[in-house]
Amino acid sequence: MKLLKDLTDTIEEPEYSFGRPQASQKEMLYCCALKVYTQFSTRRANTDIVDAHEKGYLTKPHHYNTIIKYFDNANLTPIIQNLIQVSSAPLKSVETEFAVDSSGLRTTKFSEYCKEKHGERKEHDWVKLHICTGVKTNIICSAEVTHKDGADTVQFKPLVQQVADNGFSIDEISADKAYSSRSNLETVKASL
Question: Of 38, 37, 45, which is closest to residue 68 (Cα–Cα)?
């Protein structure tokens, strides 16, 4: 909880302009990350959020409906990507070898297409997470979430570029055949 508080304290709050005051972005990201970390529903994670408030990490125990609203806020994506980079920064002197890969993550929403078209049962929708991770510590240095059909090869260059821009010294990059292209090989050659 303390590490998460230190990370979210680096977030700049948007300037208040007009209307009903919104909940603090720092605290909402803290609550969202804590909810995901516990792997509970937002209602069940409320116990941990109350605990974080009692320990002084939150100004108040935010209601679970307020927290849920922030999961759909696309404006938080660059902030979360920045937090990934900030959290990996202390390992710059340790990590010099990286691996790039992707994996599918199931969502809680269902796809109705198969049921309507073919009369089959409902299936969960899913998204694709592309990451560049350090080989020694497994720290995620850069990440991007795409549609479930998002191509791997086009995500390679931005992921490696984010790692290089964050100040990591790159000696080696591993990836499977899905990332094999001349452009990606040139990216690796340029970053070494």
Answer: 45
